Amino acid sequence: MPEDETRCRAAARPLPPQAGRDAGRPVPGPDAVTGPAVPSDPADPATHSGPAAGAPSGPPVPGAPSASGTPAPSAPPSVWRTRLLIAGIALAALNLRPAITSLGALLEEVRDGLGISGATAGLLTSLPSLCFAVFGVMAPRLAKRGGPAPVLLAGMAAIAAGVLLRPFAGGTAGFLAGSALALAGIALSNVLMPVAVKRWFPDRVGTMTGLYSMTLALGTALAAASAVPAAEAFGGSWRAGLAVWALPALAAVLLWLPLARVRSGLRSGRGRARTGGPGAAGDRELPQQRNGVRTGAAPASESVPEPADGVPRATRITRSPTAWALGCFFGFQSTAAYITMGWLPQIFRDAGLPASTAGALLAVTMGLGVPLSFLLPRIAAGMRHQSALAAALGLSGLLGYAGLYFAPAAGAWAWALLLGISNCAFPLVLTLIGMRSRTSAGVIRLSAFAQSTGYLISVPGPLLIGVLYQHSGGWGLPLALMSGLMVVQLGLGVRAGRQRYIEDEGRRPLPAGPAARTPAG
């Protein structure tokens, strides 16, 4: 009978998702992607998938998905954790430069107190670049095991311990060891702060990056301006003037202790990639993927998986002239920045200015990064080529060096402003890194290559300045070297500012993949 046949067909149809849930068996929706089960963390709403089948029932966790797969309506803990993360990121960024700029403001007192030579002082000012190159590469591997939050907590603890111990360690070796410990924590945090912003605030990357950059520049300027007054408040003790900067780092440690349980880092990112949820593939959506659903095959530039050893295969970045230009540009701007942070107060003090004024001048130089960190990326993004912007920053640095040579005391504030403008090559190069790749994966590889290459290039610069200063007894030769390095930086910035993509330059020399070698048919 037709009616019986219709009823049989209806009975054979699968239950709709709602019926399946009512029966106690969750039915995957159309967005689900099959694959091995991934451990989820209840603290991370992006990775938690609700209670497993057969799990004992209990009160719903606010902010976590319910058994139906939809988030619970009330989420006070999630709001609280979000605010705590914002405060944690801001406070962590505040601690990423005081260990460097406070030393620059008190470098003469440290040299006199420890009997440090000019060459050793140059080593001290080169130590940040060296530690960033050595310890920064460890951060991604450490974060894969427990996420970025525990590593950031360890970084803040290392900063607090190093800053607190180095003035009282006794002798030059102890001071160097304490400085290296603090700088190792800064290196780990340097690398993972952008990762934390991307993981926890994927829809507010620009806002949170601006907050992170602003507080980093604010901490840099505050330490430079208040290091000498802090030492004077403790009876002229340079040891206390340096050690006091362990207090904000200790505050960051206390703030990150509860956040260390947030496991929404690199591991949970892999979990989301398997489940097809938001944030898969490194918190980005491929052009062929919208709302977690694959709509077609991704292009080769984005669908090639990363190998287990972490070496990129889709694009050989070392064959890209743009990647090398960016890496070298990053290195020379880092050289100029660490020379400024380490030696600019000494230049002003040798010109006859008091220590407090020299620290304030360094604070002005560093403080310009607060507003310009917001403006420069916007300006650069609106330009087809950024070469003119890089050239303008380089010319500003050359004018500042010329002023330091001819009239260091008379025009001190003008030279500090010019060097502050020139120092904003740092946000420019970060912006260029994001503009010189077609894919998110390419940006990650380019960033790692440019920063590791750049920090290695910047190691000898401050050391050479210290050696020249010690042997010449003045600032003529050091300023000549600084000007020569700035000319090279200008040329590299012009080259890196051209609109190019590393995929277009680095992929052509690679051999064809297995699919290309497979005969047709």
TrEMBL record:
Record keywords: Membrane, Transmembrane, Transmembrane helix
Disordered: region residues: 1-75, 268-314
InterPro entries: MFS, MFS_Cyanate_Porter, MFS_trans_sf
Gene3D superfamilies in alphabetical order: MFS general substrate transporter like domains
Composition bias type Low complexity, residue spans: 45-56, 297-308
GO molecular function, one term: transmembrane transporter activity
Residue ranges crossing the lipid bilayer per the database entry: 84-107, 119-139, 151-169, 175-197, 209-230, 242-260, 323-344, 356-376, 388-407, 413-434, 446-469, 475-494
Any single Pfam family the record assigns to this protein: MFS_1
Protein known as: MFS transporter
Species, as recorded: Streptomyces xinghaiensis
Organism phylogeny: Bacteria, Bacillati, Actinomycetota, Actinomycetes, Kitasatosporales
